Amino acid sequence: MIFLRRQLPLVITFVTGVLFTAQYYVPHPRSELMLTEVTKWLQIIGGFALVLGVTSLFHIHAVKIRRKEPGWGYSLVLYAGIFGTIAVGFSYSFAAGQWVNGKETINGIMTAFGWIYLNMMVPLQGSMFALLAFFIASAAYRSFRARSREAALLLIAAVIVMMGRVPLGELLLPVSGDITQWILNVLNASVRRAILIGISLGAIALSLKIIFGIERAYLGGGKE
Amino acid sequence: MAFELLLGAWVATGLTLFIFTFLYQDNPLFKLAEHLYVGVSVGYTIVKTYDTVLIRLIYEPMVKQGDWSLLIPLGIGTLMLARYLPNATWLSRIAFGFIVGVGSGLAIPRIISSFILKQVEDTVRPLISIAQGAPTFTYNLSDPSSNLNTIVLLIGVVSVLFYFFFSIEHTGPVRVAARTGILFLMVAFGAAFGYTVMARMSLLIGRLSDLIEYADPQYGRASLWLGVATVAILLLWRVQRREQPPDTG
């Protein structure tokens, strides 16, 4: 029983890890087929991961409602949002003459599900992220001081890139567009490249540690 | 104008204004929109996942094409749910072992190929070109593949790598390289900041142009009426909060 609980997951990790590392170096149709199949499998398993996440969200808000904690009414709004969208997503579209089943449009006709996406999700998402523009600007105003050579460089680069991406900036400083492109395509690219190489080396080291059973945190706690 | 278009304009305007009220301070209207956003997003994801995973990836291949091998990922996925059974939690480790094992296995060769070898290949390029049999040096800054830019890229990559290399002490020439790396990093962070600000500004412009459009009489001046209503609700909420005794708990 201890083998099943403690060793079997590690054995599965090792076997699948070695198998799919080797798969890349075997250019055989069966090897390609195995990759296609396992990609589909991971998508299916990912669906179950969604169940885990959603259940956790439901549980947290159900507790808030049951205990009538401050702001429990908002949890009801959240539930209404979830169930309302699901109900609309599986409803029948009389205009299109068929079940919606998660389609935003059917034969060019917008469904109620599409309406929710267009008039609720898109504005909410856009506004939420647009809100960050104000906070970024306010944070920049408070913290952008050219206290050192490095801070000055950061400030200048940020200002040039901001100017180079709007017509007004290019009007005020005509070369800002070209400098912006140079900063993004050369200076920024070199830094991204170096950081990417560093991250990749770290990711490979971590993957090897996982495959060889040195890193086991992903197995979590619980009863042995 | 069709009723759904008009209703859509009013709902979109209302939700946009509710979110923007956070600029004043955290308030019930923002919280309402925030929770609705999470709810609608989760509901949308559930419906889409049902359609893609349950119908297209499981039901249709299994029932219509007889591909019963899909029972394996179904079984593995079900094992994940064993997290909720106190005496069988360990079963979920089998599922996690499979996912993490496959993920690690797939990652190693692909990362080496795409993120290390390819990046190094693009960095280590000839510093001098040969044109018509004679060596030439191109200075064009607007061309990322010019020789001058190749040198700048090479210096940038090497110096930033030196900055993040902690196995040797940063003294002498290594210090110079690391300091150069910091300069490159600062420019890149500044550029990333500027780029992010402009991306957010673009979203903001999108929302504001919608608000301007919905202020039109054909939409019943939704932006104006809802703007006034939002301000009125915020004022009421503020007055109500002032009248409430402070929480001493």
Number of helices of chain B: 7
User: How confident is the prediction overall: mean pLDDT of chain B?
Assistant: 92
Low-confidence stretches of chain A: none
How much is the average pLDDT of chain A? 90
List keywords for this structure.
heterodimer, A: 224 residues, mainly alpha, 3 domains, two-stranded antiparallel ribbon, two-stranded antiparallel sheet, 7 helices, 4 strands, extended, B: 249 residues
Write a structural description.
The complex is a heterodimer of chains A (224) and B (249). With 224 residues, chain A is mainly alpha-helical. Chain A has 3 domains: 1-69; 72-135, no CATH class; 144-218, no CATH class. Helix content of chain A is 75%, strand content 4%. Chain A contains 7 helices and 4 strands, in the order H-H-H-E-E-E-E-H-H-H-H. Chain A has helices spanning 2-23, 29-66, 72-89, 112-143, 149-164, 167-172, 176-211, and strands at residues 92-93, 98-99, 105-106, 109-110. In chain A, strands 1-2 form a two-stranded antiparallel sheet. A two-stranded antiparallel ribbon of chain A has the order 3-4. In chain A, strand 3 (105-106) and strand 4 form a beta hairpin. Chain A is extended, with a radius of gyration of 26 Å. Chain A starts with a helix and ends in a 13-residue tail after the last helix. The model of chain A has no long low-confidence stretch (mean pLDDT 90). Chain B has 249 residues and is an all-alpha fold. Helices cover 71% and strands 2% of the residues of chain B. Chain B is built from 7 helices and 2 strands; from the N terminus they run H-H-H-H-E-E-H-H-H. Chain B has a two-stranded antiparallel sheet with strand order 1-2. In chain B, helix 1 (3-20) packs across helix 7, helix 3 (71-80) crosses helix 4 and helix 5 (147-163) crosses helix 6 (173-213). Chain B starts with a helix and ends in a 6-residue tail after the last helix. The model of chain B has no long low-confidence stretch (mean pLDDT 92). At the A-B interface, helix 1, helix 2, helix 3, helix 4 and helix 5 of A face helix 1, helix 2, helix 3, helix 4 and helix 5 of B.
